[in-house]
Amino acid sequence: MKRHQIALLAAALMLGCFSFGSIAQIASCNKTVYLTFDTGNMSVAQKVAEILKRQDVKATFFLANEKTFRGDYALDESWKPFWQELAKEGHHFGSHTYDHDYFVKDGPKGQVFEKPQFGPKAGETVLYSEATMCKQIRRVDQRFQEMTKQPLQKIWRAPGGKTSPTLIRMGDMCGYQHIGWAHAGFLGDELNSDKHPNSVLLERASRDMRDGDITMAHLGIWSRKDPWAPAVLEQLIVNLKQRGFCFGLIPKELKESMPPKKLVDQSK
């Protein structure tokens, strides 16, 4: 009996050591990375949500009313429970423009040419005034409040990260800060999976991420054969935790605005 009690005590002490080690690792994180996701086709949205919940990590989502793999749209009533659950869990949200409007070039008189991917003018190049651009940014905020009873954070991201000083100024005048991403934060989920396999993307991101970096991936991509999130996201989070990273939310813990990145979005 005495031996049995000693064994139980040893097991308890060992478990306590493991638990303390886990707490110490969290307490000792001295760097911050900001995970962000754009809507995309939503095919891995639930998987992303499950991974974030399991890893107890919060992220920032940029929403547009994009067509999803189910044939509906990301801001339809059918997706309301999904957004409600993410909001309840404490994630942050920004606008990705309602019709996923791509910047084409600056126009005359402080206007810009945009090409919406969805909506009544999908595929057309349209001249947007500041009021029109504001409407496209704010319309996401209005719809999100209808679904979740809470507003977006006052942040937005231009589709593809394509911007100009004029476009950034329009967003600022509307009251929304533009959020780009870091070079190392481009996670590559929209790239060709034969040329950019998940194993390579995981290794690169795990190695190259730096303190304060903002990442960018999607909740689903039409063109990629091997989906990125199921293969990479959880292990990437684990690897970054092991490197001493915490996971921050935008804009609450963001000290400085990241410069916009002029990367071509190949996802749609």
Describe the structure.
The chain has 7 helices and 11 strands. The chain is of the alpha/beta class and 268 residues long. The strands form 4 sheets. A 4-stranded parallel beta sheet has the order 4-3-2-10.
What's the arrangement of secondary structure elements?
Elements: H1 2-27, E1 31-33, E2 36-38, H2 45-54, E3 60-63, H3 80-88, E4 92-95, E5 101-106, E6 112-116, E7 126-128, H4 130-148, E8 155-156, H5 165-174, E9 177-178, H6 198-208, E10 217-218, H7 228-242, E11 245-247
Parallel strand pairs: 1-11, 2-3, 2-10, 3-4, 8-9
Antiparallel strand pairs: 5-6, 6-7
Task: Using brief descriptors, characterize the structure shown.
268 residues; alpha/beta; four-stranded parallel sheet
Main sheet specs = 4 strands, parallel
Describe the global form: globular
Low-confidence stretches: 1-25, 256-268
Range of strand content? 5-15%
SS element count, helices: 7
Averaged pLDDT: 88
Distance between the termini: 67 Å
| N-to-C series of helices and strands | HEEHEHEEEEHEHEHEHE
Coarse structural class? alpha/beta
Tally of strands: 11
The percent of residues in helical segments reads 25-40%
Instruction: Please give the order of strands in the largest beta sheet.
Output: 4-3-2-10
Q: Please compute the radius of gyration using only Cα atoms.
A: 21 Å
